Amino acid sequence: MSDQRIFARYKATEIRAELQNFDAKRSKVSATKRKVALRKIIANLKMGNYNEMVLLYPEMLKFWQVEDDLEVKRICHEYVRTLGAAKPQSAKEALGAVLGDLENKNEEVQIMSLRTLSAVTSLEYINEAFKAVGYVLARRGVPQNLLKTAILLLKYMDDLDHDRVSSTLDSLYDIFERQLASPTVQVAALHTIYAIHEKNTDLKPLRLELDVAMGLLDLLPQLNEWDKAMVLESLTTSAVPQTHSDVCAMIELVLPQLQHANTYVALNAFKFIAYLLNYAEHVNEGLIKRFSNSIVSLLNKPPELEFLVLRNIILLLLSRGASLLKLDVSFFFIEYNDPIYIKDTKLECLYLSADHETLPRILEELVQYATDIDIQMSRKAIRAIGNLAVKLNEEAAHDCVDALLDLLEFGVDYVVQEIISVFRNILRKHPKRFESIIGELVKHTESVQEPEAKNAMIWIITNYSYALPNYLEFFQVFSSNLLEETSDVQFSILTSSVKFFIRNPNYQTEKICIKALKQCTEEINNPDLRDRAFMYWRLLSLAQSPKSHLLSNDSMTKLIDGELPAIQLSTKLDPVILEELELNIGTIASIYLKPVSQVFRNTRTKRLLPSPILNPNKENLKVINDGSTNLNSGAFERVPEWETIGQSDDVSVASPRRTKTMMNDYDKPAEKVNQLKGKRKSSSAGPSTLSRKPSMLVRKLSMKKPF
Amino acid sequence: MVSAVYFCDGKGRPILSRRYRDDIPISAIDKFAPLLLQLEEESSVIPPCLSHDGIQYLFIQHNDLYVVALATSLATNVAQVFAFLHKLMEVLEEYLKSVEEESVRDNFIIIYELLDEMMDYGIPQITETKMLKQYITQKSFKLMKAVKKSKAAPRPPTEVTNSVSWRAPNIVHKKNEAFLDIVESINMLMNQQGQVLRSEIIGQIKVKSKLSGMPDLKLGINDKGIFSKYVEGDSDPVTTAVTEGKKKTNIELEDLKFHQCVRLSKFENEKIITFIPPDGAFELMNYRLSMPVKPLIWCDVNVQVHSQSRIEIHCRARAQIKKRSIANSVEILIPVPDDADTPSFKYTHGSVKWVPQKNAILWKIRSFTGGKEYSMSAQMGLPSINALDKPKVKRPVQIKFQIPYFTTSGIQVRYLKITEPKLLYKSYPWVRYITQSGDDYTIKLNN
């Protein structure tokens, strides 16, 4: 029987005919054909042919009674489940048969029946499901598989009727506290309780007695891989150690699991230990080594899993710097065959793990990528080099700039665009250092085409006009076709032409300035641009009118052409969010680096529960070694500082001035430097200690999208 | 927790679905295809997780299929989802041979059964093929033979809730054998001057067990080799530092990952690998070493481009392995510009051909004895008109090979003890070594 005929739309009457046709005969052949007919029903249901198939209810019920073949049973149950979800009222007829199966001798059929009961969302079914689960839980000597299904079912039913479920929670506690059932059932019970606690914010966060938690950890060697990981997941935050020896004992039990081949297990073991370290006195250097090794070998997995691990490495680099993971940068070098999203993520890892030691190697790699055949990759690599120059100190920036200048000679169009764009940021960070190269940059004035590159070029010309004897010629390349530019560039041109004029009022600059003001106010329909032009215009006329002493030339210069604050690139996240993300290693939240609560109000935010030994400050976590290997004091020193001192300085310098000189906001605010080109998911600010500048946080939280 | 699993075709349209929870609308999957399309238009980067309207789409690609898991919460464990989806594909491959759009449509009933068994309310359950095969039999797609109205319907074995969940107790084989394959894949990046920029060895120990009962296996690996160093490593770092100057080996070898059957705590404490194997083939462990390796197959490639007329390639390949060893099916893939044509070759060994669809020249040498050196030269015409500012090709030379009876790291199996407490049969362990090129054995060209 070919599949094509199974996967086709049928009318109910056709299938009914087929079913009845062979009903009479009791040969093997007819049974086969009947099954094919049944399969057609399922196939039709999957195609959404509900209206026809619902007519077959009587036939299905008939089959239910006569057949005891497991596959037919499966099909019957699937039929009720699918139609039950789509048309709950029609499922009532089948309730009797489903309940009948619950009494069946075969465990498999009982399980099927339980699942069907929960799948149909009508009141009768739900009531019966609760009854059945209660019955299964209360009885002794139930088959373990059935018990497990019932327990997992509870978690699902919690969505439907929380109050009824919470009354059964105590018996679930019993199962794993007193170890009443087989290990896997205990895990199911634990997981159900954990999940219910996570979802309902009215319950207190789950907290287990320490000996119960230890008991569960002792079970680990006996469990299958999924259960292992589930135990580790449920115990993160719910098993709270009270003494340092508790911490050690727990780590000891979990440590072997780091070597599990399943990423799910290894990553959860990692998460659990990382969580325990919040309560630890110190961290052993050997442990860090094992951490790093375990993570590295997880990189040799299918790309999707590799991606996840890389995202989590980013998370750890952000939160702990190099203190928990010591990975050689070469693991992040891009391989020719990597899928693009892996390349992307590796690039980000390279950027984050760059310091003065590793910079030469990283820079060498990045330059390679920049000349890569893939345009996107090449742009990203250049962007990364530029950001490194801003992130690191002046000396390192020098290397980066050299690399960029080499690339500039390459002369390919998109490379030029990108390099010009990143240079603006570098020049803002190190204003005086690179004056000598301005001449080199402006040679490319004619070839910049993209709005961002144009903006950058205009900015560079404006700010370094003193170093360029013929800056106006360069500038006129842009200003002469003001009308055709995008609005971004129009803003830049307007501001720059006003600046040129007040710096050096002469015939030429005045002409340019007036022309720009005129065009912006008269010929362009963008109200923002028009208003800004008017504002400049009035400021200028106010300053020049002899009667008024409101505004002197000096103060206007300060107003329009003031000094810019230095920019800072900070990769640090808010510690509160980091704490939550660290407890969510391996989850979707860790991929987007967004706190869970931001998207789902009702879910509980994971927090470290109090304990006498909870470290108030992660910085105090000491790295010690066990005497065999050489002391690595650097690891301790490199622990990141939570307070982003640089930033707050920046804010305090910038804000008073900003209140006065609102008008010269033409430049990208400092925090935008961190933003890579292109769209990104923006997010609302989470609870933050840096609430003075929420936008900065928001940007850092959002996942870096392709630029 | 997964809310639903979908099998979608190459365009992202659903073929088959299994819903585990009711918290997502049925129409949610219809958004998947447009989402993919939109991303593809915006940029070439399509990460394996998408988010739309509060629903998370986590997917893997397999042949011409997208296997998509939907979830609602950001707290969903992605590691669980991806590990499960890959496991699912593994299991399906054993059932269906190859998993692609057509075979999925053909066998949708069995896939439903498997999805039912492997996941319960979004939580992974049994994922060992051998265990699943006991009660999800293959009869579904061998339609003609199928029906047996047996009263004794297969039922899930009780072992799935036992501690040895990967093995059924009553397995009997006429001949009791265990096959051990030690496969080392070498990833290496070199430059044209022969400098090794980065190298790593990825080792796998694969076991195929055909043993009766509940055998307990103990694997011993050469004590002079890396393992003893590893054991000593903790107590006596000095000697290890001295041995061959490979100070790093004992660190890197901690990078072991074991199949779930290995008793991890035993390994942790006593450094002994003991396990009750599942029946059939599985990967017992894998390891990684990043010790410096010299290139096993080295190619001296010289490319001369006379722009607008022709390109000349000279290549000398040398097998830098022991004289007794032989490298099999060596393939050297040398990139050429995509507008090159009219190839002409001169070579002493193997076969050379131009593969236009890969824009490369492929030199195949079936067997390459250690210490030998072969050479090849090729010439191709280039068009006389040059497209302006075309970015240069920066593809590497890729090399593939297999060397049997040889491991690069020097790992060796000393013994494989098989004990079955009840049956006490005679058993035969077989061991095989192989070194091969990994995914990334390449020579960068600096043009």
Automatic annotation (TrEMBL), chain A:
Record-annotated Clathrin/coatomer adaptor adaptin-like N-terminal domain positions: 13-543
SUPFAM superfamilies membership: ARM repeat (SSF48371)
Chief localisation class: membrane
Coiled-coil boundaries: none
Compartments (UniProt record): Endomembrane system
Keywords: Membrane, Protein transport, Transport
Chain spans, region Disordered: 661-707
PANTHER family: ADAPTOR COMPLEX SUBUNIT BETA FAMILY MEMBER (PTHR11134)
Organism this protein belongs to: Zygosaccharomyces rouxii (strain ATCC 2623 / CBS 732 / NBRC 1130 / NCYC 568 / NRRL Y-229)
Pfam family, one: Adaptin_N
CC terms in the record's Gene Ontology section: endomembrane system; membrane coat
Family: Belongs to the adaptor complexes large subunit family.
UniProt function note: Adaptins are components of the adaptor complexes which link clathrin to receptors in coated vesicles. Clathrin-associated protein complexes are believed to interact with the cytoplasmic tails of membrane proteins, leading to their selection and concentration.
Keyword Ligase: no
A GO BP annotation: vesicle-mediated transport
Comp. bias intervals (Polar residues): 683-692
A single MF term (Gene Ontology): clathrin binding
Name of the protein this chain belongs to: AP complex subunit beta
UniProtKB/TrEMBL annotation, chain B:
Compartments, as annotated in UniProt: Cytoplasmic vesicle membrane
Any one of the GO BP annotations: Golgi to plasma membrane protein transport
GO (cellular component) term, any one: AP-1 adaptor complex
Entry keyword annotation includes Protein transport: yes
One Pfam family in the UniProt entry: Adap_comp_sub
Annotated keywords: Cytoplasmic vesicle, Membrane, Protein transport, Transport
Domain MHD intervals: 175-444
Main subcellular location: membrane
Family: Belongs to the adaptor complexes medium subunit family.
PANTHER family listed in its UniProt record: AP COMPLEX SUBUNIT MU
Name of the molecule in the record: MHD domain-containing protein
Species this protein is from: Zygosaccharomyces rouxii
